[in-house]
Amino acid sequence: MSRPILIDTDPGCDDALALLLALERDELDVVGISTVHGNAPVTDTTRNARSLLEFFDRTEISLSKGATLPLTVELETAEHIHGEGGIRGELPEPTSETAPIEGHAAQFIVETAREYEGELTLAAIGPLTNVALALAIEPDLPDLLDELVIMGGAAFTPGNVTPLAEANFHSDPEAAARVVRDAEPTIVGLDVTNAANLPADWIDSLPQESPLGRSIVEWLTYYSGDQLEQYDFETTAIHDALAIAGIVDEGLLETESYHMTVGTDSDIDQGALVCDVNDVTDGEPNGSVALEADFERYRELFTETVDRVVAERGN
Length: 315
Ligand code: BDR
Ligand code: CA
Prior knowledge:
315 residues; Inosine-uridine Nucleoside N-ribohydrolase, Chain A; eight-stranded mixed β-sheet; 17% strand; binds calcium ion
């Protein structure tokens, strides 16, 4: 039986690959997409998400537009990494078929969680503004969900925006703090996603005769040479796809439970994910964080899925 999943996203090159994975795996049933500011302003991420649904031929999936601004800080976007408009590739213009549904994404998240009570996985792969707003509308959201999986945070590894903070948490630290405090998440952060790259020779072997093939290759290589050096990456890390892969294959990630908090007080701790390893706060564990991953299994799952899609539709 496939797991119903709603994906809250800010496409984004790695978001595009995460969506492709989720849409193509029989283990998952994507019942909705919601969009949030992040890699680009929400108008752009919403257009990108719509284009992706058209590109992947899944226009029947409901799409809901979400937050324009973070809860307390200024908007920060990442076109310098993901490309102009927040995504690379040769995406089609969206049509009326993928027009966002009425209402705010936070309400859509709550309604979908109620509809699939106890069964829905909510995967948040952008800043957590929509999820924090959904929690404010429905504080029992964690009980309505089967699981909340977040791509975000850097627990025991340096950040990618500040020395302590990962981009999704840094973009809306107040939202991240509330969600981590109250929503019992499974956090898939930079501790594991920094190594979620794909072999260069496999990327080189992908057929590039079609817009889909060429776009996939652009998404797989979205970090520029300078950025690869800056983060000490051999090849581009596909952060968001690892979070989805961990839902497809439940044995992929090894997690530890901690009492966790997210910093919101000063520039230096803004968006920092803090795990109370020595139990010095006496706080109960309020979620878990992925610290190890079976990257061989991840790469197998990912390459097998993309190879199939490209063979079926990308030539
Ligand atoms: C996260 O930030 C975004 O740029 C990516 O899409 C991913 O969700 C990685 O820090
Ligand atoms: Ca993202």
